[in-house]
Structures are given as structure tokens and as C-alpha cells.
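re: ur msg from earlier - yeah i can do the MGD complex, just paste it... oh wait u already did. ok heres what im feeding in:
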Amino acid sequence: MKENKQRLSHYDGAAGGWGAVIACATQVISQKAPVRDTIALFKMNQVKGFDCPGCAWPDPDHRSPMELCENGVKAVSWETTSKKVTPEFFAAHPVQALWKQSDYELEQHGRLTHPMKYDITTDTWQPIDWETAFNEIGKTLRQLQPEQVEFYTSGRTSNEAAFLYQLFAREYGTNNFPDCSNMCHSPTGKGLGESIGIGKGTVELSDFEAADLVICVGHNPGTNHPRMLATLREVARRGGKIISVNPLRERGLERFSFPQSPTDMLLGGSTEISNDHFQIRIGGDAWFFRGVMKAMIEHDDESQKNGTPEIIDHGFIAAQTLGYEALRESIDALEWSQIESGAGVTREEIVHFAEIYTAHQKVIVCYGLGITQHRNGTQNVQQLINLLLLRGNMGREGAGICPLRGHSNVQGDRSVGINEEPSEDFNLSLEKHFGIKVPRKHGHSSVDSIRAFERGDSRALICMGGNLAVAMPDPLRTFPAIRKLELQVHVATKLNRSHLLAAKNSYLLPALGRTERDIQQAGIQSVTVEDSMSMVHASTGSLKPASPWLMSEPAIVAGLAKATLPQSPINWKALSGDYRLIRNAIEAVIPEFYDYNQRIEAPGGFRLDNPASRGEYRTATGKAMFIPCTTEAIDDQGLPPEHLVLATIRSHDQYNTTIYGMNDRYRGVTGRRDVVFLSVNEARVRGLKQGDVVNVAALNEKGEISEERTLPDQTVHIVSMAVGSIAAYLPEANILLSLDAVDEQSMTPAYKSVPVLITRKN
Ligand SMILES: Nc1nc2c(c(=O)[nH]1)N[C@H]1C(S)=C(S)[C@@H](COP(=O)(O)OP(=O)(O)OC[C@H]3O[C@@H](n4cnc5c(=O)[nH]c(N)nc54)[C@H](O)[C@@H]3O)O[C@H]1N2
Ligand SMILES: Nc1nc2c(c(=O)[nH]1)N[C@H]1C(S)=C(S)[C@@H](COP(=O)(O)OP(=O)(O)OC[C@H]3O[C@@H](n4cnc5c(=O)[nH]c(N)nc54)[C@H](O)[C@@H]3O)O[C@H]1N2
Ligand SMILES: [Mo]
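and the outut:
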């Protein structure tokens, strides 16, 4: 990017609108995606089309002719690009040379076209035929112990591919399933599971039509779930209230111009989404929500004395919950001064939030990574549930919890068995249906797997998509740990840095994308995915594959399984030849998927059973549980007073580790990513102003600067930001993160609360 194109400014337009339309067109053109393929966009998220690989927000029942959004267009044109990474490309670019390129440049080379094997003597990837690749991988896997192998899944994998993948790994003999959900919503699975008996959200789209208050905590829908803005717009237009809790003021949550509304587009109209914003400090959520509950309890005590209507729903609590007394005790023990400094907002603001909350009858709490990616991620999630339970906002229409999940099928992958701790029911069911033995020992999550590589306990990595090395914290530990492996297999659509850590036996296997036609023995195939609201629906690709040598993910898994397990009683060829048979098998093993093939025929698919949404709590006690908070996001004992807490965040032009472009439109950043976000006050006390250049250094547990973990040369961008807080982009800022800073309950890294010091660069 040229220097003169770099700009840091203030964006005061609405989210969406013409900016989104222009960005769509620019993206399609820059990817050289043929116009014919771009028309495919119109089929995205339509009844017979393919599911958008962009996000996991559900499709409305009444689809507009073009149910797409700016970031969906980016995700699709990224996949349908006509640029190619061929064997000739690899011959001309040794791995060492590719390593010097940025993550942005690596993926910009285009789609992988051939199966490749790394050749250590020439330091290049060289073509190999599929059969030889499968046989060599199978042979190496047979020489290893199953417990030494890690089977990673990134959340674009379909239910069909994921089910076959876990079946293969379990028949082989391991539960080592590191998964991208370990990096985002494992605290949701764990926290909601303990609190309400199901590790998923409880609301559906129709609940947003009934809710009178929607609380948005720690998520950024304008960028990460843009189609959600259309839902929030409807809530706002019919008089529902939306409030947000976020250290940053995110434009998408303030004002939205709907690209599919002629009035908005032609007359420059827009809808105010949220006007009440609670700017808590990074890592302050558990303090803030305990403060809100304290204010409610105090107010309720007064009401009881004065005989005015109760603030807390004691009837609901007595009938449907357990643990209220313990929660109350833990909250009574807190001083307001502690709460104010932990949350970074005043008691008055907290009381104001409690008043808004208690003035509404049907409340949905939405949340994202601002809640989960902390040392207390699981307990953060549980504080949101406590808040809802205090007023019976669970198990009824218009109320409940709504985690904004990440990858478009991350929730489905977990539903069909990508789980390092499977239940005994699931194990027995797999054994019975397939006549195999599966392991009982629990396996590794993502953080465990990297630690096992480091120790030398695990020696092989199979990746079903994703960019594990770059997505994980702590490249100083993660990269060398992966580089020493004996076997790496990457099933991918595009080249990324994880592939460049190749060492001994490394294979790069190119897969069909979701937009592409998948023809198997039984004809054209559909796959299925599950969105954030437990809706399961079909996705059918229609475009010509990027290369004739691509294989579908189910076919690749079947090929690996056959070559690794020659004695397997499972008919892998039949399963991968007809995905209806895979769905029959899923149905046989997991009863919630009954009549699977029939039910996906319905427009929009079907909803998996969600007992908590009808007030049935399948917890150990059969009741919804109040769970107090015992861990804090930040332990500031020993930290220097001038420290800041840093969150890593996504720009508008990126999808996780995939960088589409250098702009972050709604935050006023153009042409660059070497930026830190800081409030005017935090800048002033450090003698800094807009455009100054700083170094950011991570602090270790003792509060000492870690010289190696430094992010140099970041330009200060002054924005509306909470006290004590600073933000920078992933993955560049991952150098600051420690593989040891995790939520111990879910093993999710604390990507959003890293203690740092900043110093001016002279
Ligand atoms: N276009 C696009 N779409 C995506 C993705 C993408 O990268 N690009 N990624 C996908 C994936 S895998 C996921 S998991 C989701 C992620 O979607 P989100 O959950 O929205 O993730 P982030 O952008 O990382 O962070 C969300 C917000 O958390 C706020 N935040 C930071 N720290 C705190 C805190 O301590 N407390 C509170 N309350 N808020 C805080 C930040 O200011 C930011 O607004 O999006 C999915 N969709
Ligand atoms: N610092 C910091 N780090 C983070 C986060 C954070 O907030 N802060 N967020 C974390 C989160 S929420 C997540 S989910 C992880 C993401 O971790 P991953 O899911 O591992 O990473 P992605 O960047 O989504 O993966 C991109 C790669 O996926 C491959 N790919 C894309 N589509 C397909 C497909 O259809 N099939 C196959 N086989 N491959 C495909 C391409 O090769 C592409 O290069 O990152 C985590 N890392
Ligand atoms: Mo994610």
C-alpha cells in the first residue's frame, strides 16, 4: 500500500449504505472474479443456493431477492477468484521466499489447484497424485500412536465432512480434536451447558420480533455479522430498545443504512440502532454485570420494604432455578468502589443500565468475543445468564441468550461430534452403529494440542481447513512447536502461513469450496450446516470448481481413512459417494437429527431441539443454575499503574487470519493495519497525540516487560474508547499473547485482555 493512501480519520456516516455497495464492487473486481460467478452471489443464502461462508447469522424466512451483505460478498469473491496457485507457482517460489510475504499477499495468490507435497531438499512444494498422497499419509499414521496425532477443524467444514472426519479419527483411536471453537465460543458451550443445560443460544429470529429490549455485549455486527443489522433495524423501527456494552463505540451498532432499502439508499436514510452505550473497560464485564445485579438486588430490597412491585422475579427463581442465595451472597460482599474501578464506569451508569433492563419485559442478551476471550470467559457468559434469570428472561418468547457464533458451521461441527470430550452416549452410539471401538480418553483442545507439540508428545497435525498456527496466540512458541512435527496434512482452499511451517512429511490437499459444484458417484451433492440459532439447512454449490484436481472434503476424509485403516468395517467409498448416506448415519448416531434427509427439504431447513428455549433445563439438577463469578479477567496485583489492557480485534476488511484489504471503514482507518486504538485521555496522560508512533510491549505475570513480545511501530488512532484500554488487530498483535493466558474452564485464550505497556518511539 502506498504511503499517500494511508489515512486515520473519524467515520461519522451510517454503517451499510453506499459504502458497502462500493466495497462489494471493488472486491469483486480486485479478485478478478468473473461476472458469471458473481451472479452466483445472488444464490447465496437462497433456498436452493449455497450457504454464505461469511458468518453464522440465520436466514430470515422471507428472503429478500438478494440476501447478502458486504462481507458475504468479500467471502464469496475471495473463494470464486480466478487467480490460481499452481505447481508452476510453487516451483518458482521456495517456502523461504513465501515466508517473507505478508498474510495478505499469501492468500492473494489465489486458489490452490493441485495436491502438493513438501520437498525439503529444494524447499518447495511439488505436485503429487491423490492416491500416492493418501497412501503415504496412511502409512505414516499407522507408524504413529493415535494419541500423538491432532485432528484440527476450522468451522467452514460441513456437517457431512465433520462427521466423517471425527469417525475416521475415532476409529483410528483418538479424541484429539482441537477446533476453532476453542478459540471463540468454547466458553459458550461450557458456560451455557452448566447454567441452562445446553451449550448454545436459546433464541430464534422470531424472538427478535417480540423482544422489547436487545442488549449487545462485546460484539461488532457491522463487521462480523452484517446481516444482523437488518434484524436490529427492525427492532429499532418498531420501537424496541437496543443498548450496547463495549469499550469501543462500534459504528454498526449506532446507525445503519440498509443497502436493500430503496428509501435508505436513494434518500440517504438510516436508522438509529443504539443510543445507550456503556463504555466499560476491557475485561470489565463481570464487574459491570455484578454491579447491575447489585443495583437490582438493592432496588428489590427497597421494593419489598415499601410494598412496591418487585424488581426480581422471585416466583420464577423459586420454581425454575437453583443457586440464587449463593449468587446474592457473593454480590453483597462486593463494594461499589471495587465494582466501579473493575468495570471502568460509575455507579450511576451501572444503576442506569439496571433501570433500563428492569423497565423491559422481554429481553435478549447478544454477545460475542468481548465476553468469551478472557481468563474468565466461561464465568462472563454465566453472569449474562444470571442477569437474564433474575427476571425470568429465559424459556419464553422474546427473551433469552444469543451468542454470535463465528464460522458459518462452527456450531454444526460441534453438534456432529467434533468434541474432545465426547459423552458416553455418543461413544456407545458410534460403536453400535458402525461396529467399531472408539477411545474413551479425553483428547486435546487447541491450546492443549500446541502444548503437546511443544513437549514432543504429539507429533502429527491434520487440519481440515483453517490457519491454526496464525490463529493461535504466542507465535514464538506456536511456530517452532509446529515446525518440528513429523507429519502435517493441510486440507485447504488457499495458501496461508500455517502451510509454510512444513517440515518432514507435509501435504497440502486442495478442497472444493462451498460455492462449487460437488459431483460424486450418486450425482450432484448438497451438504448441510447449522447457524447460530440451531437451524440446519442444505447448501448446494453451483460454480465450476477452481481446478479439475480438487476433491470434496468428505471425499478427502474417506481417502485418508481407507488408506490408514485398511481393515475398517466402514464403507467409506459408499459414504463419500452419496452424502445422503452420511446424513442417515448422523441420524442413527445422534437422535436429534431424526428424518434428516426429509427435513432439509423444507425451505430454511429445520431447527435442532433446544430444550432451554422452552424452559426445560437439562443441567445436573434439572434447574437453571445461578453461578457466581470467582475469577477475574485481569489480576492487576503487581502490574505497573500505567499499564493498559489490550484487546485484539478484527478490521472490517478481514476474515480471521484472511486479510481482504487494508481498510477498516467504520473505524476510520484507510490503507493500513499498523494501528492502535486509544482514548483521548489515555493518550494525553502519556503525552501522545493522534498519529504518534509507539511500541507495545506485553507484561508477564510478574508485571515485567517481555522484550521478545513486543509489537513495534504502531500508529496511535484516537477514538472513543474506554479507560485503561487499547486495541490492535489480529493476527499482527498475536506476538503479545501468551499460550498460558487462558480461561482454564474452557481453554480459550485470553485474546481480549493482554496487559501491556506502551512507549513512544523516538
Ligand atoms: N467479516 C468478518 N466476519 C466474521 C469474522 C471476521 O473476521 N470477519 N469472524 C467470524 C468469527 S470466527 C467470529 S468468532 C465472529 C467474531 O465476531 P465478534 O464477536 O464481533 O468479534 P471481534 O471483532 O473480535 O470483537 C467483538 C467486539 O468485542 C469488543 N471488546 C473487546 N474487548 C471487550 C471486553 O472486554 N468487553 C466487551 N464487552 N467488549 C469487548 C470489541 O470492541 C469488538 O467490538 O465473527 C465471525 N464473522
Ligand atoms: N489475536 C486473536 N487471534 C484470534 C482471534 C482473536 O479474536 N484474536 N479469534 C480466533 C477465532 S474466533 C477463530 S474462529 C480463529 C480462526 O481460526 P481458523 O479457522 O483456523 O482460521 P481462518 O483464518 O478462518 O482460516 C483461513 C483458511 O481457511 C482455509 N479455508 C477457507 N475456506 C475453506 C474451505 O471451504 N475448506 C477448507 N478445507 N479450507 C478452507 C483457507 O486455506 C484459509 O487460508 O482465530 C482465532 N484467533
Ligand atoms: Mo471464531
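cool cool. The chain has four domains: 9-80, 84-169+427-604, 186-403, 644-760. ping me if u need the other ligands too
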